Amino acid sequence: MALNHAEMLSRTIIGIIGNVVSFVLFLSPVPTFFKVVKWRSTRGFSGVPYVVMLMNSTLWIFYGLPVAVSHNILVSTINGIGAVLELIYISIFLIYANSRERRKITLLLLAVLSIFTIVVVCNMFLVDAMPRRAEIVGSLCIVAGIGMYAAPLTIMGNVIKSKSVKYMPLALSSAYFINGLCWCTYACIGLDIFLLIANGAGALLGASQLLLYAIYYGGIHPEDREKAKQDGHELEKITVQETKERSGDAERRNGKDNY
């Protein structure tokens, strides 16, 4: 679809805003990984969302290039940055994950890189028409985009089960929602159906995460409840011991006085 100058300018401005919001989205896992490094363990955090986000970013990089879709370079730039950041997050996760999680995430990472390579090679050498490339890559981007936004839903099951949002970061859920809304606006100006569907679904899924966060905010995770219970038992033991010691001291003092 050909855009006039005003539409192009509006789309560029919104695209830049979208880049900023997406950058915040890509940075939102930073507090989580500070915790991982501090704990020297991934604990209850999942590495799957970051692998899915990497797959999403790599496909959108290709979709935004002039070989697939024209006037979409802003889509490629931010997803290029995102891909680098996701690789950093995944590397940290692999360092501190247990052997089972490390093996699972490594296999997923290899699968993502293989899929991206196949998509690029097949489209560049087997598909000549650019509109056809846009349809193929755009359709894959919709699947990957919905997968990216839906990946935290695996954690949402744990939230419902534990009635606690301890392992579902609010920053990440909020960034998903705002990012989806922003890129929906960008897609509407150029009538980019692929961007619109992927990010529209993202906005809805982000809203569902925020709703769940509001419902279970303040809930105590079973791990913390058990720890508090154990700490309570320890405190009770210490109190009993101190009481016995004080009673013994009092008896000894009384014995001396009587003597």
Instruction: Using the alpha-carbon principal axes, give the shape.
Output: elongated
Spans of at least 5 consecutive residues with low confidence: none
Largest sheet, if any? none
Order of helices and strands: HHHHHHHHHH
What's the pLDDT, averaged over the residues? 83
Nearest-angstrom radius of gyration? 26 Å
What is the end-to-end distance? 106 Å
Overall structural class, as computed from helix and strand content, comes to mainly alpha
Number of helices: 10
Q: What is the helical fraction, as a range of percent?
A: over 70%
Q: In what range is the share of β-strand residues? A: under 5%
Work out the number of β strands.
0
Count of individual domains: 2
InterPro entries: SWEET, SWEET_rpt
Family: Belongs to the SWEET sugar transporter family.
Transmembrane segments: 12-36, 48-67, 73-95, 107-130, 136-155, 176-197, 203-220
Region (Disordered): 227-259
